Amino acid sequence: MTQTKVGIIGATGYAGEELVRILLNHPNVTLAAISSVSFEGKKLSEVYPSLYQICDMALTNEDTVIAQSDVIFASLPHGLCEALAKKAVGQGKKFIDLGADFRLKDEADYQQWYGLEYKEKELHTHSCYCIPELHRERLGKDISIIGNPGCYPTSIALGMAPIAKSGLADLNTLVIDSKSGVTGAGRGLSQTTHYPDCNEAFSPYKTAVHRHTPEIEQTLSELSGEPVRVTFVPHLLPVNRGIVSTMYVTLKEGASKETVRALYESAYQNEKFVRVLPDGDTANLKHVKFSNYCDISLHFDSRTNRLIVVSTIDNMVKGAAGQAVQNMNLLCGFEEDAGLCLVPPAF
Ligand SMILES: NC(=O)C1=CN([C@@H]2O[C@H](COP(=O)(O)OP(=O)(O)OC[C@H]3O[C@@H](n4cnc5c(N)ncnc54)[C@H](OP(=O)(O)O)[C@@H]3O)[C@@H](O)[C@H]2O)C=CC1
Ligand SMILES: CC(=O)N[C@@H](CCC(=O)OP(=O)(O)O)C(=O)O
């Protein structure tokens, strides 16, 4: 079988390196080229010694990655991907952006939350925001660019989708309390991710002003068919990987514990990567680390008539590189789980 050539722009970042880890074991693809600005000419294994004798490929530049690959993953800071996607699509390639440049439908949201504009508006008509379990039918033949979802929004959308679609909860009462491991902040050094600052510390940040808010609201509004506004509070958790999102929403009349559980079980019964846990269990980030799974547990506060959903993912896998590979699999017609059968270690 012919192998599809894939390349990574920004392979030296955390999400880029995670893509390498997954793509090296993918049955349908060959890693053709990887790039970096700061480390161009060096081997990737010099930047990440865990890859010594596994991926000693030299880092090249963006244009070489585009020229040598059929599918290009870009894992870069926001604002750089429209220009790269234009070049890639112009050469007949497919482009998957792990950042936010193709996530938001409404340019006004991108302007407000990212302070940037869409310079290549036409490109957005060939792009698609895709959480595979919710949007895979969007990936028609006209789609050549994927806006890979953000890490927090992935955990939240999967955790809320069945109840949001059902109309059995008042989504405008939704409060989302999320915690992310420190790899979520990327490889660059900062005061908040400096070891003495984040170790043994725990605190919210960007309370109710995080840039993932419009992405979360976009998905929940589409699912429910009405405008949704949520309160979203992320926290920095002093672990390397993992996201726990705990979501609190008021149920409407007629939404019993049994009805809601049935909704979730039915929505995800054929979804390999979403596990609805049995009644009484609680989702834990330890059980999804290094894997593409999203675990969901359901809890009911009968005194306040609130549903509490806990959703956990590995921010680097289902929250970034794993979901990007799942999207490539759909775009290229591979088995959806190809390269993604990663069993989470028990400890
Ligand atoms: N970390 C996570 O959990 C998640 C990350 N993402 C997204 O993935 C993308 C990458 O994030 P992450 O890996 O965490 O970030 P990192 O900071 O770890 O890596 C950033 C990468 O971008 C490259 N880069 C930085 N500035 C430029 C520039 N001006 N031009 C070209 N390349 C540049 C760096 O390469 P070099 O310095 O070698 O040139 C590096 O490879 C972001 O869009 C992020 O939003 C999405 C979901 C989750
Ligand atoms: C812990 C931490 O800092 N997390 C990052 C979000 C993760 C991410 O990379 O999101 P994007 O893909 O939208 O950039 C943050 O809060 O900015």
TrEMBL record:
PANTHER family noted in UniProt: N-ACETYL-GAMMA-GLUTAMYL-PHOSPHATE REDUCTASE, CHLOROPLASTIC-RELATED, N-ACETYL-GAMMA-GLUTAMYL-PHOSPHATE REDUCTASE, CHLOROPLASTIC-RELATED-RELATED
Compartments where found: Cytoplasm
Residues annotated as domain Semialdehyde dehydrogenase NAD-binding: 5-142
Record-linked InterPro entries: AGPR, AGPR_AS, AGPR_dimerisation_dom, AGPR_type-1, NAD(P)-bd_dom_sf, Semialdehyde_DH_NAD-bd
Reactions it catalyzes: N-acetyl-L-glutamate 5-semialdehyde + phosphate + NADP(+) = N-acetyl-L-glutamyl 5-phosphate + NADPH + H(+)
Pfam families membership: Semialdhyde_dh, Semialdhyde_dhC_1
UniProt key word NADP: yes
Protein name: N-acetyl-gamma-glutamyl-phosphate reductase
E.C. designation(s): 1.2.1.38
GO biological process: L-arginine biosynthetic process
Function: Catalyzes the NADPH-dependent reduction of N-acetyl-5-glutamyl phosphate to yield N-acetyl-L-glutamate 5-semialdehyde.
Keywords: Amino-acid biosynthesis, Arginine biosynthesis, Cytoplasm, NADP, Oxidoreductase
GO MF term set: N-acetyl-gamma-glutamyl-phosphate reductase activity; NAD binding; NADP+ binding
Family, similarity comment: Belongs to the NAGSA dehydrogenase family. Type 1 subfamily.
Chief location bin: cytoplasm
Origin superkingdom: Bacteria
Enzyme class, UniProt record, top EC level: oxidoreductase
Recorded GO CC terms: cytoplasm
